[in-house]
Amino acid sequence: MVVAVLIVALGRSIATNPRFNWNVVGDFLFTSRILDGLVLTIELTAMAMAIGIVLGIVLALMRMSQSALLASTSWGYIWLLRGTPVLVQILLWNNIAALYPSVDLGIPFGPSFVHLNANSVVTPFVAAMLALGLNEGAYMSEIVRAGIISVDEGQTDAAKALGMTRLQTMRRIVLPQAMRVIIPPTGNETISMLKTTSLVAFVALTDLLYSAQLIYATNYQTIPLLIVASIWYLAVTSVLSIGQYYIERHYGRGSAQETAPTLLERLRAGLWPRHAEVEPVERPRLPEDHR
Amino acid sequence: MVKAEQVHKRFGALEVLRGISLEVAHAEVMCLIGPSGSGKSTLLRCVNHLEKINRGRLWVDGELVGYRQAGDTLHELPEPEIARRRAEIGMVFQRFNLFPHMTALENVVEAPIRVKKVSKGDAKERGRALLQRVGLADKVDEYPARLSGGQQQRVAIARALAMGPKLMLFDEVTSALDPELVKEVLDVMRRLAKEGMTMIVVTHEMGFAREVGDHVVFMDGGVIVEEGPPAEVLDSPREERTKRFLGLVLEH
């Protein structure tokens, strides 16, 4: 009850306080600069997560492989990228030309076929995408590894006994089951990535937040524009959460548990959790139990 | 069909198999019995190279299991070759190990499609026939979680049979089942034996061993203590250890 009153009071204050300038929020919500920023943010998030997930799977498999070289390479990669700020990594990638002015594609130590100028290949967008994606890979690999470990070894035995190769076993049997454990934290990572992309302002990329900042730098409508950005972040997060629910349902198929209720279903069932709906009852001991 | 010569298997310091030699003829049903920890399941897992043997030789259908001999030394086969040979040996596990994210039919057709490259249509047709053969024609599209233990184990047998194996390994396949579900699984195995399948069966079901087994091997402590026709080993054992084990198993 107290919570409900507080929520109403807060809502009323936000709606009626003139300094929120809701009309300005409305004016800027759909301006092209904000929308362009939003598109850039979504693109960066999607590409960084794509890189991160693929890399995460590779790193997890390396980490679990029998080869000490692969396992320790993966360990070292995770150690390095998790141990340094992602902002530093973005800045480093953006200045990669200082270390490697040109990129040559060809046979290692042999002739090169393509010669590229690092500055033209690694644009700020590419630098941000690489930095965020490579960093995400380090985190994703631990999530993937947890998922793989969670699958019963009997599954691998059964697949091997049927003559499936290690790769087939991983792709067809282990990973689909590991997904149930992998998806929820990956949803977290995606939502977190959505907001981490705002760091790209440091390399002058006009993402959602930086676009809003550029606008309020000229018109001084700081709060309304921050609200505009927040509304869009919230909107995308909501879409991602819904997507996660359906992906989870897909990979939960065949599980004994019924699928989790959607948020709407839970709202319909009542806002407040009903306590003591099911009292745990001590089951009387039956003679069969002792067999 | 299967021949073992002085097979040894160690897990760290623990020697689980200490010189096993045996032979299983074509279309023979061999039952492996013995107390838990005697190494019978490990021996079974060595036959399709789920476990690597440390010493000795093991052949299936005239081919060394998991290794290639060059002169006096053994070299482990490359993984695809090991997989190819495993595909010819069916195995059924104590805890079923069905793939929970696939329906009964998908479980059965997975390996034929992926490993044997059978077309989806053919695999499904044959899969349905196999599920019907184990009495599960109406459970084709159910997920394992919705099947009873006995039904799951019969799907697992159908899944192994779908690869057209020349040898079937059964690892205590009724031990995780409620008593009333044991019979439906044993019936399927009985029929399989009658059809001439070569089978190695690790079991605690002495009745099954007596009725279906052509040969019973009693193992204890990683060695074969006694072996022979079921009537001999089960009804008039010569060895003290066999008598003690059977006494414990049969009185309960």
Question: Could you describe the 3D structure shown?
Answer:
Chain A is mainly alpha-helical. Chain A has one domain: Orthogonal Bundle (MetI-like fold), CATH 1.10.3720.10. Chain A has 13 helices and two strands; from the N terminus they run ααααααββααααααα. Chain A has a two-stranded antiparallel sheet with strand order 1-2. In chain A, helix 3 packs antiparallel against helix 10, helix 4 crosses helix 8 and helix 11 runs antiparallel to helix 12. The mean pLDDT of chain A is 87. Chain B has 252 residues and is α/β, with parallel strands linked by helices. Helix content of chain B is 38%, strand content 27%. Chain B has nine helices and twelve strands. In chain B, strands 8-9-10-3-11-12 form a six-stranded mixed sheet, sandwiched between helices. In chain B, helix 3 packs parallel to helix 5, helix 4 packs across helix 5 and helix 5 runs parallel beside helix 6. The radius of gyration of chain B is 18 Å and the shape is globular. The mean pLDDT of chain B is 93. Chains A and B meet through helix 9 and helix 10 of A and helix 2, strand 8, helix 3 and helix 5 of B.
Residues in helices of chain B, as a percent range: 25-40%
Main beta-sheet strand count, sense and barrel state of chain B: 6 strands, mixed
Oligomer class: heterodimer
- Kindly provide the radius of gyration of chain B, computed on alpha-carbon positions and rounded to a whole number of angstroms: 18 Å
Trace the largest sheet of chain A across and list its strands: 1-2
**Span between N and C termini of chain B?**
35 Å
Spell out the helices and strands of chain A N to C: HHHHHHEEHHHHHHH
Query: How many helical stretches of chain B?
Result: 9
Number of strands of chain A: 2
Number of domain modules of chain A: 1
CATH superfamily of chain A: MetI-like
The sequence of SSEs of chain B as H and E is EEEHEEEEHEHHHEHEHEEHH
What is the CA-based Rg of chain A, rounded?
25 Å
Which strand order does the major sheet of chain B show?
A: 8-9-10-3-11-12
Helix/strand structural class of chain B: alpha/beta
Proportion of β residues of chain A?
under 5%
Quick one: overall form of chain B? globular
The secondary-structure class of chain A comes to: mainly alpha
The low-confidence runs of chain B, each spanning 5 or more residues with pLDDT under 50, are none
